[in-house]
Specification:
Blueprint (H helix, E strand, L loop, with lengths): L16 H22 L4 H24 L4 H36 L1 H15 L9 H15 L3 H24 L1 H11 L4 H39 L5 H11 L8 H13 L3 H31 L3 H15 L3 H31 L1
Protein name: AI-2E family transporter
Main location: membrane
Pfam families: AI-2E_transport
């Protein structure tokens, strides 16, 4: 039986094959851009999932590929470790800090009294140069305005954590398809993909595992310093110092600096000076030395790449930028080397 012709079989397309190819690429890039913009609020969840995938993948390979453990149970175990070691402590500490910040800002007169005592002890005018009371009242208003939104913030936190865990689950459960997809759809040769993968692993080792070690050392040193110089709650503030240590430039001075101020306000000038000396001479220098040494040893990352990347990443992505920033610089350098190599290869093919 004769089939009727398709209605569009004889319609001439106005584009050349080259134009159709270009428009296809533009359409793909545009749709990808729209998806990134739409998911921008939750982009950190997917970035964190990718970073944790790199961190835990050696465990996954050892348990699943080498020891032949059940891949689903291993994946669930990795997710539980993530929740217990990362999510719960971070959320709990954030809540405790917010409660204490609210308590301080509701009673600015306590901070003013402390500043006046520091002025009397040092002879330096602080409240005369700055309108401290107005600043504290504005801070109290700002912090108080956060309270009604805590429920929505908690909901947003749960959504981000849920997306991160959900993404991690499928990255591990479909690891083979994920790795094959990278090789199939990324526009790079296999050797370039290997270089990018090695750069990612080095950055994660240097700026995640290395930074955790640095933060632990600084946390212990800060807690011991506060305990020796009799600052209240040294264990709590030592834990706070662990999280503050991830912030470049500021870091642990946000903990032992106010502790010294507190001791000044209590008339303990010797203890306050002791805290400042230990902070400036020991804790800060240990931070700088360890950060550079571990970045070089654990990931073979140049210190300049680490420092510039930290500033770039934190500005763009927040806390997770501690990894993303140096990674962006490393990828830029790798792709520049790939560009140079491809140009040299193309010129060699022309001359031959």
């Amino acid at each position: 039986m004769h089939k009727p012709p398709k209605p569009f079989a004889y319609v001439e397309n106005i584009y050349t094959p080259r134009q159709r190819y270009v428009l296809l690429v533009v359409s793909l890039v545009s749709l990808a851009g729209l998806m990134v913009v739409g998911l921008a609020q939750y982009l950190t969840a997917f970035l964190a999932a990718g970073i944790l995938f790199v961190v835990f993948r050696p465990w996954w390979v050892a348990l699943v590929h080498h020891r032949k453990w059940n891949h689903r149970l291993v994946t669930i175990g990795i997710l539980l470790v993530t929740v217990v070691l990362l999510v719960v402590p971070f959320y709990a500490l954030s809540s405790l800090l917010l409660e204490r910040l609210v308590a301080f800002t509701k009673h600015p007169e306590r901070i003013l009294d402390a500043l006046h005592k520091v002025e009397d002890a040092t002879g330096i005018s602080i409240t005369g140069q700055l309108n401290v009371r107005q600043m504290l009242l504005q801070g109290a208003t700002k912090v108080s305005s956060w309270i009604p939104t805590l429920a929505s913030s908690a909901l947003n936190f749960l959504v981000v954590v849920g997306l991160m865990l959900f993404t991690m689950y499928y990255l591990f459960m479909q690891e083979t398809y994920f790795m094959l997809g990278l090789h199939r759809y990324l526009p790079f040769r296999n050797e370039t993909l290997e270089e990018l993968g090695e750069s990612l692993k080095n950055n994660v080792n240097a700026n995640v595992l290395g930074q955790v070690l640095v933060a632990m050392v600084q946390s212990v040193l800060t807690g011991l310093t506060l305990w020796i110089f009799e600052v209240p709650d040294p264990v709590f503030w030592g834990v706070v110092a662990f999280f503050m240590a991830f912030l470049p430039v500021l870091g642990t001075p946000l903990v032992w600096g106010p502790a010294a101020l507190y001791q000044f306000s209590q008339g303990q000038s010797g203890k306050a000076i002791g805290i400042l000396l230990v902070g400036f001479i020991v804790i800060i220098n240990i931070d700088n030395l360890l950060r550079i040494m571990l970045a070089k040893r654990m990931g073979d990352i140049h210190p300049l790449v680490t420092l510039v990347g930290l500033v770039l990443g934190v500005e763009m992505f927040g806390l997770i930028g501690l990894v993303i920033g140096p990674l962006l610089l490393s990828y830029f350098m790798v792709l520049m080397e790939v560009f140079r190599r491809e140009n040299r290869r193309a010129m060699a093919e022309k001359t031959s």
